[in-house]
UniProtKB/TrEMBL annotation:
It holds the Pfam family SURF1. It comes from Rhizobium brockwellii. It is found in: Cell membrane; Membrane. The keyword Cell membrane applies. This is SURF1-like protein. The chain crosses the membrane at residues 12-34, 224-242. The lineage of its organism: Bacteria, Pseudomonadati, Pseudomonadota, Alphaproteobacteria, Hyphomicrobiales.
Length: 251
């Protein structure tokens, strides 16, 4: 075997390595660019939600029309009027400012007989039952202002416990089951919720204004990570090639 035969594999190996490096570099840069795009999308979403929360409330009919047309109603400010059906309230297990308790979802019967489930707010664990907060059980005609919340299409995750309907403890907001469990016809129930604002209730319970908007925005950090890895790869390869060049014997 000649010296040329020995040299051929050594010449091909750097070419193959170079191709792998270019592929890895392209992947890292693509991931970084994707995170930048996600960053712009997330910033726009956060700004949009903030604008919705700051806007003036609109009548319930307007939100209904938007929902029927397939529009995004989430976090839009709305107002509705009716009477609470207090003996049909549903309890959603929740934590509010470090305290364990429940969000109280109460059906609001509108003038036309339809039902809107309203998240009236938080009560501590010991105040779960209505008799422990009777002053907050409003019976007259009420006007509610709050944020529209979309109906969940299904259980959010397998790690979320199943709802305990018998004990009136819901771990995820299943609107259909909430209504069915208290004998309300599905056809009468408006297909979304409203989270009541922070307007104070008698004796302070339930505590309104509990809507939590938590949209993590770590995309800039992720973008720096991917771009940083791409830069490190370039530096490592450059150093490696420089050292190999320095060790190559002069012909």
């Amino acid at each position: 075997m000649t010296d040329i035969d020995h040299a051929a594999p050594r010449r091909r190996l750097p070419v193959f390595t170079g191709i792998l490096v270019l592929i890895a570099l392209a992947i890292l840069i693509s991931l970084g660019t994707w995170q930048v795009e996600r960053l712009h999308w997330k910033e726009g979403l956060i700004a949009d939600i903030a604008a919705r929360q700051a806007a003036s409330p609109v009548p319930l009919a307007e939100i209904e029309a938007m929902a029927a047309a397939g529009g995004d109603i989430e976090y839009r400010k709305v107002t509705a009027a009716g009477r609470y059906i207090n003996n049909k309230e549903r309890h959603f297990f929740a934590t509010w400012r470090g305290q364990t308790g429940y969000y109280i979802y109460t059906p609001l019967e509108l003038a036309d007989g339809r039902i809107l489930f309203v998240n009236r707010g938080f009560v501590p664990y010991d105040n779960k039952e209505p008799e422990m907060r009777m002053q907050g059980q409003l019976t007259d005609q009420q006007t509610v202002t709050g944020l529209a919340r979309e109906k969940l299409p299904g259980k959010p995750s397998w790690v979320v416990p199943d709802n305990d309907v018998a004990k009136n403890i819901f771990y995820w907001k299943d609107l259909d089951v909430m209504a069915e469990s208290v004998g309300l016809e599905k056809a009468r129930v408006i297909p979304f919720f409203v989270d009541a604002d922070s307007t104070a209730n008698p004796a302070g319970l339930p505590i309104g204004g509990v809507t939590q908007v938590d949209l993590p925005n770590d995309h800039l950090q992720y973008a720096f990570t991917w771009y940083g890895l791409a830069a490190v790869l370039v530096v490592v390869v450059a150093i490696s090639w420089f050292r190999k060049g320095a060790k190559t014997p002069q012909q």
